[in-house]
Amino acid sequence: MNKTDSDKKMDPEDSIWFYTELIDFYNINGLKSVFVTFDVDWAPEYTLRRTVNWLKENEIIATFFATHSSPILKSLKDTNIFELSIHPDFSKGADPILKIQDLLLEYPNALGSRNHRNLSGRNYSDALRQKGVLYDVSKILWSQPYCQCVPMYNGMIESAYSWEDGTHLELGIELDLKHVPVHKPGLLILAFHPVLFDLNCRSYEELKLFTSRYKPLTSAPEKEFNLAINHGFGMGAFSRQLLLYLKAKGVKFQVLKEVMKPAFEIECRRPRFPLKARGDHEYRV
Ligand SMILES: [Zn+2]
Q1: If you measure from the C-alpha of residue 13 to the centroid of ligand 1, how many angstroms do you get, rounded to a whole number?
Q2: Which of 60, 154, 220, 221 has its CA 20 to 30 A from that of 264?
Q3: pTM value surpassing 0.85
Q4: 187 C-alpha vs ligand 1 centroid, how far in Å?
Q5: Rounded distance, CA 106 to CA 66, Å?
Q6: For residue 127, is pLDDT > 90?
């Protein structure tokens, strides 16, 4: 008797998914799992406090990619409710290693990085690897399905993310949930920014107009910030609507390390990339 396709055991080599062990995260049979992330981008403390309080009140789990030393972020500790990873700015001066090192001193449990302005390339991933960072989510594949964990050339794990608040505004896309790719199969990683979440801007220009006034942005006085908040329907209100929609759907919120760490551990056990190819440094697991 001939075997039908469904009788055959799935061979990982035939799958579109690199780590078939992780398919429960990949929304193959509908929307089930989401990873909410925030790129801190020098948000003042009062903004971070308001963002974190909103997430706590609504029981939404998130990963923060930190740009600087923040008492509010540090008070969150590093748990399965809030993960603290790093958001190094490689766009200006200084050795990438030093930038990563400074952030890791502030956030010693950080396992991942999303590089500011999506900068990527070997100069940065070699430095991240050297400092023991094990995953990188710096690439954006706008609105694309089938994002997943894949191994990088250096043994780190990477995945693209498919939506970001600032890009949505910058592209001038209508603030309607139908334009957020939450019903496509694949790893669903959404990227937000606390300043945009709080300022609730209606356009990218409005955001830039405010942020360009303060260097660094952490120095923006709370009074001036509060006066600039849009009280109509802007990206902050839309972001809250999106997160509450996902919550109402019963979607599971998780921190990124919950999928990235197992991917890294599977990769370490694979004979395809011998351990010696990983160098002598210690990974942060
Ligand atoms: Zn950034």
Answers
A1: 36
A2: 60
A3: yes
A4: 21
A5: 9
A6: yes
